[in-house]
Predict the 3D structure of the following.
Amino acid sequence: MKTRQKTSKPDRSPHRLLRVLSLGLTFSLVSAEYGDAAEPIKPVPIMIEVNEAKAELGRRLFHEPRLSKNDTISCATCHDLSAGGDDGLVVSTGIEGRTGLVNAPTVFNSAFNFKQFWDGRAHTLKDQIDGPLQSRIEMESIWPDVVTKLFQDKDYPRMFQESYPNDPQIISRENIKDAIAEFMRSLITPNGRFDQWLRGNTGALNEQEKEGYALFKRYGCVSCHQGANVGGNMFQVFGVINDYFRKRGNITDADLGRFNVTGNEADKHAFKVPSLRMAAHTAPYLHDGSAETLRDAVDAMFEFQLGREAPDEDKEAIVAFIKTLAGEYQENNYQFDLGQSPMSAEFQEDRRNGNLGQRPAANGVQEISTAETAQESPPAEIAETVSQNGKARPLRTGRTARKASKNGKAGPVRTGR
């Protein structure tokens, strides 16, 4: 049963479980909440179980331009799996050159998001497929046309029959969505250097990166970015301490965020907290693509979410830590160190040519069970930010992240190397 998210007035009670103080994060309270010696960020599972036939069908559909009205746009157009799962643009370009309204997020690790899209309007991966396919500024297609085109292909009828043998319709809207969603569940990036460190490989991070993680917790970034996806499990107002939209100006409907879904005044400018897992490879940042580099995004978070200053060396250490979060996906290793701006001409040229450098995985990685799934979100209402003047604003946490589904016919698909 679907439930509407409840909102409440800020609770300034001293009995809150965790406060992100202007003087730093009292991290021992986080450890108490999660268990002794536990970290708030969890590793991405090394393997995840999906239905292999459906996932392969979904892979082909994900790259199929015939899903669009004029056969020019596929899911992969805006979500390039060789380049971080996004398109590197401020906003995406859809059918006939029409431009999008918000920055395209990565599809990697999206199975761990508790909802989909910046405003959370889709509950599941399957639900979200209708949006881009039918959107006038993305694919502008209709399902009967898509089904007809796929029926005319020499391979799709057979592949659908193999994946959905008991469905008399074979190729249908629901089966197309189900196959794409199954493929998207497989898009995980395990074995990042930070995950190796979490599993006991103390040499996987250098001293700056370790300090960056400590600062990430101390400053309170972890109150919104935690779990296996380092985000994606709650909504938060952008500009919780300082008003980002008043400073930027030119407020659009897309800037209203979650309010467009709920109509609740408290949800104005609230967005799903983005995952940081692939952040080193998905510039530009923020829902409007206004932050050109990771450092720009970190600066914005300090100004508008934390409302405080920090030395440059602290911010650079946090950036270095964020770069360790990406992992591996099949033939692509996303663990290289970005020594240049992600938006530089050199980086963009390398991205187009598939020449992005690689960092070899460190030794001593502890293997985890195939049954391991993403860590669930922390309990609701465990955190609130407190600005330097002492005025508290609540963090509105959402339901726990949906675990990857398991099918009785599924077999494990290794997405790491």
Remarks:
- Residues 24-45+190-394 form a domain with the Cytochrome Bc1 Complex; Chain D, domain 2 fold (CATH 1.10.760.10).
